[in-house]
Amino acid sequence: GTIESPGFPHGYPNYANCTWIIITGERNRIQLSFHTFALEEDFDILSVYDGQPQQGNLKVRLSGFQLPSSIVSTGSILTLWFTTDFAVSAQGFKALYEVLPSHTCGNPGEILKGVLHGTRFNIGDKIRYSCLSGYILEGHAIL
């Protein structure tokens, strides 16, 4: 499915307060991937919760103009909460979500200045990261 901020791609309104709750069957997980992301830095925020929207479930708070990495829930519910302030807006966001059966791990996402090698993300599959010329990989190259 697709989730877009109100008014996308022509800009979202001030004082927005939107909640999306994605629910799938038990034992499944949800992967959220961003196609476009442009929010006023620090003032307009997309909060993503792993489950219901409670403080302990906050997975990430997103703002600014950098395309976020993919997000995978640990359970069958993923909640998005979008809030904006009284002034300045941007294009907004477009996110794609899909259900991951329990035997898949989900796409771990691209890395800045790097390349993901691998297209299968099932349990037992391996993927490899490499860096563009002039950059050094920190962490594991093979997952």
Structure summarized in a few sentences:
The chain has 143 residues and is an all-beta fold. The chain has strands spanning 2-4, 17-23, 29-38, 45-49, 58-62, 71-72, 77-83, 92-100, 114-117, 128-131.
What would you report as the Rg, rounded to the nearest angstrom?
Answer: 16 Å
Report the order of strands and helices: EEEEEEEEEE
Q: Helicity level, as a percent range? A: under 10%
Strand order of the largest sheet: 1-8-3-6
CATH topology of the largest domain: Jelly Rolls
Largest sheet: 4 strands, antiparallel
Number of helices: 0
CATH architectural group of the largest domain: Sandwich
Indicate the overall shape.
globular
Task: Kindly report how far apart the N and C termini lie.
Answer: 27 Å
CATH class of the largest domain: Mainly Beta
* Residues in β-strands, percent: 35-45%
**β-strand number:** 10
Please tell me the overall pLDDT.
91
How many structural domains can be distinguished in the coordinates? 2
Q: What structural category arises from helix and sheet content?
A: mainly beta
Q: Pick out the low-confidence regions.
A: none
Kindly report the name of the CATH homologous superfamily of the largest domain. Spermadhesin, CUB domain
